[in-house]
Every structure is written in structure tokens, then in C-alpha cells.
Design brief:
single chain; 264 residues; alpha/beta; 5 helices
């Protein structure tokens, strides 16, 4: 009765089912790994944002690479802004997805070292893309700023190409090593996204807090793949029972058709 399982159609169907089950199980495991990674990142971000601000010198140093755990940590710095060496970062968007610039201003600490400060977003208000835009001035004289510590931007991490031959005082990526060469000074690793003091007239527009990744979605996908994996053998059994039922009906019909012929 089960010899039909050796037919080409059923052999292919069975092999596909046997292949789908482990594949779906592995996809579910992969989604669980993504869930764990995103949950861990969300926890790191929450811990960093809720931590009490500390002096930047305790977290950073010249040539230091900002680590994953240090990212988004609130730090403070005392010194003065150097607007003469200020640059803008091209192709950056604000909360409304409008394209403009981020304002990157060197902040000279009391010991002469430089901290790069992303003061926020401004619109592309120049007469052309090659012209340096108008930038609101930062506080003059000695001041204290607070910001979220950020690692150097790279093409690999951001997907932004580090284009060459840009107009004067315009850059594509915020990179402390490159800025150290340009400035000829000791520059602390990474940069900070300013959070205080608030700019006059709300411009530049401060960079918003990092959003949380939707880790719950990965958890849902994991369970979904495992449900699919469980449904495959169930579906195979349903098809098998249907095939057996259809074969029995055909056999019974053939038997009924043959009986009168035999009697006659």
C-alpha cells in the first residue's frame, strides 16, 4: 500500500521536507542570536544613557578607540570652541529626514588637547554645495559641554564613502585620526554628540538620542520559523493520509466495476 512513497513525486516531496526542517530550525536559531545581540545592545545603550556624566578625560585619550561599552556614555568637558578650524559633515539628515550638515567644532581642553564636538544639524543654506554654510556661533570663552561619546566613523561601519576632493572645510566622516592630521594637534579618540548646553535659537539642531532596535521582532521570527519547521512533518502526514484515502477509494471503485463483469 505504501509503495507509492518510492515514486519520483513522493521521493522529491519527502527530500524537500527533510531539507526544510533543519533549515527552518537553523533560521530560528539565527533569529534568536539576533534577538540576544539586539537585546544586549539595547541594554548597553540604556545603561550608557542613564549613567552619570563623567569628565571626558576619564573615558578618552588621544588616539583612543571608543569601545562598544563606552559608546553613548555621557561625558563633560571644559575648555573653549575653536571655530576657526570648524568643519561641516556632508549629507546628514535631521529628525525630519531633511538633508544638511552636521557641524563639527574642535573643542580645546585646558591641557591643549582637542575634543571633537558634533554640535548638531544645520540645513544646507549656502548658495551652492561647494560654499561653506552659515553656522551659528557656539558659546564664546571658557565653557563646559556635555555630550554622548561616539566612536570614529568609518566607511565599513557607516556605509558612507569617504570622498576626496571635497570643498574646503567639508568632510564625509568624523574621524579623530584624520582630524588630528588636519589640525596638527593631539585629538581625543572619537567625538561627542553635544547634548548641553542647548544652542541659542535651537540651531544647530542637537543630534537625537539613539533609538532602540526592535529585538522583539527577531524573537517573533524565531518562533515563526520553528512553527514552520513543526508544520512541515504535519503537512507531510496530511498529504500522505490524503493519498492513502484517494488510493483506497480508487481501489474500491475498481472492485465495484469488476464484480458485475465477473458474474456475467
Amino acid at each position: 500500500m505504501y509503495r507509492f512513497l518510492l515514486t519520483r513525486q513522493w521521493v522529491i516531496l519527502t527530500l524537500v521536507a527533510l531539507l526544510l526542517i533543519p533549515t527552518m530550525i537553523r533560521l530560528g536559531i539565527w533569529q534568536m542570536h539576533r534577538y540576544d545581540e539586539r537585546s544586549a545592545r539595547n541594554q548597553l545603550v540604556s545603561d550608557a544613557l542613564s549613567a552619570k556624566p563623567v569628565p571626558v578625560e576619564e573615558m578618552d585619550a588621544a588616539g583612543h578607540g571608543v569601545t562598544r561599552k563606552e559608546r553613548y556614555r555621557a561625558v563633560t568637558a571644559t575648555g573653549h570652541f575653536d571655530t576657526d578650524d570648524e568643519v561641516v559633515v556632508r549629507r546628514r539628515t535631521n529628525s525630519d529626514d531633511e538633508v544638511g550638515y552636521h557641524v563639527l567644532t574642535p573643542f580645546v581642553l585646558k591641557d591643549g588637547k582637542v575634543l571633537l564636538v558634533n554640535r548638531g544639524w544645520i540645513p544646507a543654506n549656502g548658495p551652492s554645495q561647494t560654499a561653506f554654510p552659515k553656522i551659528p556661533a557656539p558659546p564664546a570663552g571658557e565653557t563646559t559641554v556635555t555630550g554622548r561619546l561616539m566612536p570614529d566613523e568609518t566607511t565599513a561601519a557607516s556605509g558612507i564613502k569617504d570622498l576626496k576632493g571635497l570643498p574646503d572645510r567639508q568632510i564625509m566622516l568624523i574621524n579623530s585620526a584624520q582630524e588630528a592630521k588636519r589640525l596638527g594637534k593631539e585629538v581625543l579618540g572619537g567625538y561627542i554628540a553635544q547634548t548641553a548646553p542647548d544652542p541659542k535659537g535651537d540651531t544647530p539642531e542637537l543630534v537625537g538620542k539613539p533609538g532602540k532596535e526592535d529585538s522583539a521582532l527577531n524573537l517573533a521570527y524565531a518562533y515563526q520559523w520553528w512553527l514552520f519547521a513543526a508544520a512541515v512533518p504535519v503537512g507531510w502526514v496530511v498529504l500522505l493520509r490524503r493519498e492513502l484515502r484517494d488510493r483506497r477509494r480508487r481501489a474500491e471503485a475498481e472492485t465495484v466495476d469488476e464484480v458485475p463483469a465477473a458474474v456475467g
